Amino acid sequence: RYAINLNVRGIQPSATLRINELSNQLRAEGRDIIKLGLGQSPFPVPERVVQALRDHSHEKDYLPVKGLKGLREAIAGYINRSERMRCSWEDVLIGPGSKELLFILQLAYYGDLLIPRPSWVSYAPQARIIGRSVYWLPTHAENNWQLTADELDIICRDDPGRPRILILNYPSNPTGCTYSEDQLLAIANVARKYRIILLSDEIYGEVQFDGRHKSIARYYPEGTIISTGMSKWLGAGGWRLGCFIFPPELRPLQDAMAIIASETFTSTSAPIQHAGIAAFTGGEDIDEYLHHSRRVLKVIGEYTHRRLTDMNVDVRKPEGAFYLFPDFSGYRDDLARHDIKTSAAFCTALLEDTGIAILPGSDFGFVPDQMSARLAFVDFDGSAALQLASGAFADA
Ligand code: PLP
């Protein structure tokens, strides 16, 4: 009876949010639920940033579509300091979460979407809603789930001039893996050869456990857009602030996105943008917060990895973010005896039988009967963990 857009029919609400709602519902019914489904930072927002939000809570005006100049300057300063890309404040676009910006990027640019398999749950549905084609690029656990330059070349060489966007997310949701500089360079060279727009999703860049996060923008500056925000390293997912940083060569694309923004969300909430200035300007307190967050996540990630490995589950050790992508196919026969033949059925049974919520690999682009799942190791008291990290085991 209702003329629902055909592109939207058949797409389920975001898997991550669905499992979170189910976990909450079971908790409300009194069940003891271990929430390893939703990828939300366990840490509180740093106090100085919360104070900035309080100080600006009276700000009520619409802001410029591309964002508050002070925030764009703070973000440009942050990107330059971290040596990801040389940029000016005019290269920055602010939006209500990087998810929204990823969506309007695909509205503004006409091209196929290339994503490694497995990838974050929302890239492919966003493309499908808009009616774009999605190409999954194979990656392998033995290879730390890294896309290789060869795989990218193979998919592009048949039709070299075709407009395409490649999204590369590292450290990765769902695998926790990242890339070496050599690997980034090799991928960048192929992207340049085929003039692919490279969206470098660096939302977990600050939570890379060892060494400094490096951006592929260093190797393909003219074609790379960096995506980041405050959700994953600052604990402020619900505040909804994301940003894209464009090279000057892609200014027309940035302007096209700003037109769509002006006709849709208008601008991101003013108090949040002011708080963002405090966050991206940084300071010793935020450096310390990040230092301790990384240490806590590394310890918990490695512990979880060890426990799974002890159970003969095949899983890569995480290098950043807060995810593991274990493969339970070693248990396939046992599971089949209980009529569990898909990763979705496995995750549902796990939640119902044990109260542990994780997400099926099929939500990340895997075929249903591949027994992988994503585990977000974030169900702990982030404030207490930060206190412990800054005192009790600071030098451990
Ligand atoms: N990219 C990745 C890989 C993510 O995991 C997420 C959130 O889960 C996002 C982007 C979107 O983040 P936000 O819209 O909160 O900036």
From TrEMBL:
List, alphabetically, the InterPro entries matched: Aminotransferase_I/II_large (IPR004839), AspAT/PAT-like (IPR050596), NHTrfase_class1_PyrdxlP-BS (IPR004838), PyrdxlP-dep_Trfase (IPR015424), PyrdxlP-dep_Trfase_major (IPR015421), PyrdxlP-dep_Trfase_small (IPR015422)
Q: What superkingdom heads the lineage?
A: Bacteria
What broad class of enzyme is this?
transferase
Which protein are we looking at? Aminotransferase
Alphabetically ordered keywords of this record: Aminotransferase, Pyridoxal phosphate, Transferase
Residues of the signal peptide: none
Q: Which cofactor does it need?
A: pyridoxal 5'-phosphate
EC number(s) on record? Answer: 2.6.1.-
Q: Which family does it belong to?
A: Belongs to the class-I pyridoxal-phosphate-dependent aminotransferase family.
Recall the GO molecular function terms of this protein's record: pyridoxal phosphate binding; transaminase activity
Q: Name one GO biological process term.
A: amino acid metabolic process
Positions of the Aminotransferase class I/classII large domain:
32-375
